[in-house]
Design a protein that fits this description.
single chain; 360 residues; alpha+beta; 2 domains; 10 helices; 28% strand
Length: 360
């Protein structure tokens, strides 16, 4: 069952070596993801004897820190017990403030057998978590994040020329890093401006060969954390993360945050409830540009945000990739056929025009 494709993932995307250790985990949200876990384990064991696997109860929200049992499996019992005694561990899980330098030093000192490679395919994303940031930035783990993964993706956006995607993603990331502002319009009604000055973009290349590299699989985007207090205009949302909306919703941004939502669709009430519980979830978190020519599926955000010729805008957490907003929520919304202009002092560049990428 997809053993050849899984082998390619380990060999091509992650460059897993026999002397390295790997951690593979999912959640219980979808039976087909739980059923994939033993196949990932079997293939990984054909490469290295050091394999750990886990499945945990679904957390229901993207960007939530994974549960305690996964931290123990990843870093060991001693560091978790020590942080619990100090009262820090629950604050980490709830994304409350904590003395980050002290906590990181505790992990450095007490962690044992931290994996070299992580394959994370829970239905709900762990990309924008302190857990992922700690693994990649402090321990140099290579981290493939695959939220909302569907096995059909092995035959589409995973079956690509990764060198092409890597170059395009890095080239666009360079333009974003150079830019200071972005203006996006689309036929559906999106018309939004925001600042990206001083932020560094990341190319999601799909090739995680060097220590600390991370991203999605399927991959194919360049993304950046905009200024959380400087977004104005409207974002027309046609898709929730896993379905097409019955009617589009319009998110009105002011001073970086969604001031209110227009439209009548059940998803609106889901988001408004999240805003009530987590006010910081209102803020712009990410701007991304899709670069994968074989990504086609619009009703699954993992694939949709990679579609060549689209852009996506996220709200919620972005502190793990260059932003300042820390909240247990992160969700992306794709804009189709966008026209995108990026500029700085004395220059501007049309990156996309009605979904067509201009020459880089």
């Amino acid at each position: 069952m997809f053993e050849r494709e899984i082998l390619n993932l380990f060999k091509v995307n992650l460059n897993l070596k026999p002397e390295e250790s790997v951690l593979i985990f999912t959640d219980t949200e979808k039976d087909y993801l739980v059923e994939l876990l033993p196949y990932f384990e079997k293939v990984a064991l054909s490469i290295t004897p050091s394999v750990r696997v886990a499945s945990y109860l679904s957390l229901k929200v993207h960007g939530t820190e994974p549960p305690e049992e996964l931290w123990r499996l990843t870093f060991g019992d001693e560091v978790v017990n020590t942080l619990k005694e100090k009262g820090y561990f629950q604050r980490i899980l709830s994304k409350e403030s904590f003395p980050e330098e002290e906590v990181i030093n505790t992990f450095r000192k007490l962690s044992i057998k931290v994996p070299d490679v992580v394959v994370a395919f829970p239905y709900f994303s762990t990309t924008h978590t302190f857990y992922r940031k700690l693994l990649t930035e402090e321990f140099g783990a290579r981290y493939a994040s695959m939220p909302l993964f569907d096995p059909s993706m092995f035959k589409g956006p995973m079956d690509v020329e990764w060198d092409y995607i890597a170059k395009l993603s890095e080239d666009i990331a360079g333009i974003l890093t150079e830019g200071e502002w972005v203006h996006v319009v689309s036929p559906s009604g999106t018309d939004i401006e925001f600042l990206i000055k001083g932020r560094k973009a990341i190319g999601d290349t799909g090739l995680f060969h060097d220590p600390g590299e991370f991203g999605n699989l399927p991959a194919g985007e360049a993304f950046i954390a905009p200024d959380e207090r400087e977004a104005y205009g409207k974002l027309v949302v046609e898709y929730a993360p896993d379905r097409k909306l019955d009617r589009p919703l319009t998110f009105r941004f002011k001073e970086g945050a969604v001031e209110f939502i227009e439209g009548f669709e059940d998803y609106r009430y889901t988001i408004e409830e999240i805003f009530k519980r987590m006010p910081a979830a209102r803020y712009i978190a990410e701007f991304g540009v899709g670069t994968n020519p074989k990504a086609k599926r619009a009703d699954n955000i993992l694939e949709a945000e990679k579609i060549l010729g689209t852009i996506h805008i996220a709200i919620g957490d972005n502190h793990t990739f260059g932003g300042t907003n820390r909240v247990s929520f992160h969700t992306d919304y794709v804009v189709f056929q966008p026209t995108v202009v990026i500029g700085g002092k004395g220059w501007e560049k049309k990156l996309l025009e009605k979904g067509k990428l201009h020459k880089i």
